[in-house]
Design a protein that fits this description.
The chain is of the alpha/beta class and about 350 residues long. The chain has two domains: about 10-140, Rossmann fold, CATH 3.40.50.720; about 140-290 and about 315-340, Dihydrodipicolinate Reductase, domain 2, CATH 3.30.360. It contains ten helices and 15 strands. It has helices at about 10-15, 30-45, 70-80, 95-100, 115-130, 145-155, 185-190, 195-210, 295-305, 315-335, and strands at about 25-30, 50-55, 70, 85, 105-110, 135, 160-170, 210-220, 230-240, 245-250, 250-265, 265-270, 275-280, 285, 340. The strands form three sheets. A seven-stranded mixed β-sheet has the order 12-11-7-10-9-8-15. A six-stranded parallel β-sheet has the order 3-2-1-4-5-6, with helices on both faces. Strands 13-14 form a two-stranded antiparallel sheet. A hairpin with a 4-residue loop joins strand 9 (about 230-240) and strand 10 (about 245-250). It is globular and about 60 Å long.
Length: about 350
Amino acid sequence: MQSASSGGFSRQRAEWKCKAVAIRWIVIGVGDITTKRVLPAILAEPRSVLAGIVTRNPAKAKPYGVPGWTSLDAALAEQECDAVYVASPVILHAPQTIASLRAGRHVLCEKPMAMNHEDALSMQRTAEEAGRILGIAYYRRMYPQVIRALELIRLKAIGEPVFAEATSHYWFCPGPEDERSWFIDPAMAGGGPLYDIASHRIDLMNYLFGNPIRATAHLSNAVHQYAVEDNATVMVEYNSGVRGVIDVRWHSRVSRDEFRIRGTDGEIEMTPLNSGVLIYPGGKEELPPHENLHYPCVADFVSAVLAGTEPHSSGATALATAWVTDEVIRMSNSFGRARR
């Protein structure tokens, strides 16, 4: 991948003139994921052009050869664009998404969808009222081995699925000057690993198993005394009869990325989840994800906008994950969060 300062982006912009441009993007936020994945995905997507960036520091837009604004309202008023990618802190997801939709733009928003289920519902209702497409960047729905796992489940390769488990463990301890320090501020992020990494796995289980009907969890601070939890163990019951358990931790120096599904006649193993490995009764397949994990999500969203259809991960599908998160918070508050 070329760095922003290498001149690669200026060469790409020259190539854009030869593209059959369909979707012009404004991106909000120039953080870690945006620079590593989102912006490269938009730049590489053949039907897309980057039209501008909204950031607290407009100088960050210069390496991309596009205008920069500190105000989303100004960007929407001054720049012609078709879609907005919302990659700001979670507290801003709902207001920035709603403002963009009301301005007639389609929106692809980072996960989690919003601070709570009520805000998520407002985002989806606004999309419907505005007649615009709303996507949420739960990109693991587009992993080849996840799509294959769903096919195997429907083919009864493991009989009836009854239990699923996922873990995501790593060490996260941002310093005060770290650009990701807002992740441990509940007013900005909503929560800790529950919002950050459990949301991806909850959404994946919703995709595989159907409607969640009950959810509970234990949240605590086992190592880091943040204002948000440093670990969460979530249990979800599905209308299909499957029970899912998701365990996420920011205090493990051993990284884990596990996902398995157990059925009456066998199990499906997808560990590590990001590797593309898929093991099931009688078979093993290697189905690696795209080298840029966000690219299939961006490409799928563009296809949905052009066709006037729902993206693979939409506002409507993401509502279930927001509902589970709300239930988890409600139940945790009812019983009291355990803190060391």
